[in-house]
Write a structure and sequence with these properties.
This protein is of the alpha+beta class and 301 residues long. 35% of the residues lie in helices and 26% in strands. It contains 10 helices and 11 strands. It has helices at residues 61-73, 97-112, 119-130, 133-141, 179-183, 192-210, 215-221, 228-231, 236-247, 270-277; strands at 2-13, 22-37, 41-48, 80-87, 144-149, 155-160, 167-173, 252-254, 261-265, 281-285, 294-296. Strands 1, 2, 3, 4, 5, 6 and 11 form a 7-stranded mixed sheet that branches. Strands 8-9-7-10 form a 4-stranded antiparallel sheet. The longest helix is centred in the C-terminal third of the chain and has 19 residues, at 192-210.
Length: 301
Amino acid sequence: MKTVVIRVPATSANLGPGFDALGLALNLHDEVEATLSDEPGVHVTVEGEGAGEVDTGEGHLVVRAMRRAFLHMGVPQPEGIRLRCRNRIPHARGLGSSSAAVCAGILAAHVLADSEMSDDEIFALATEMEGHPDNVAPCLAGGLTIAWSDQDGRPRKLKVTPDQRIRPVVAIPATRLSTEAARGLLPKDVPHKDASFNAGRAALLIAALTLNPERELLLAATEDRLHQHYRAPAMRDSVNLVERLRAVGVPAVVSGAGPTVLAFSSSDTQDLIAPEVGNDWHIQQMDVDPVGANVQFPETR
């Protein structure tokens, strides 16, 4: 039997104006212990988030990602797969749980098959499965990432290092929202002036997160006109919380497709967040994960 442990971070995509392009890795992790066995069949145990809810057979997302990776590599499907998933990333909350599962499965298959897949191949395969690169890129690379597609449609990513003063805070509600449902509310076309507005804000946000993370600059840099207000009917409480936080000077956005809210905390805004959030949300201070997905082996842990 061969066993590997893959550790993958939560992520927050979009960050306000960077729709489908910007992502940030957070220090909240899932761990997947994957074993290939001669004993036929698939067996998955889940601890933490999703326990008792998710498929524990062939339908499990990590298993599907492993199967897809073996197929891509031209490697015969293994007789047996055993997974032990220790999940800490909330599901369907806009913190990249599905991207984490996809990346974990592909990386597990890559390592267990002793394959020579490049980082670019792994990223492309994960993007193909996930549908969008903005969560996949920071999950694999860590830090702050910019994702785009070249003229041939190949996904690309660039990792940049955020300023050490960046302190993300997430407010996680009890309610869930699927990415598909949130994306279905987006219009086919947007006004040119809104696209121009977001292009400027996204550029400003990169500068603010890497060079000058002062509250006033981040507050302006996290403004968005492309997606959050269109999705508001599906997560009214989240959008209202974003508006309340911004009204008192806290740079806040919807995390990914929601409904989690991401705020950038500083010494002069820490005391402003909790009163606006209230008791119906789980507030968690986080650091940026600078590493992203990483591979461990049981004997070295």
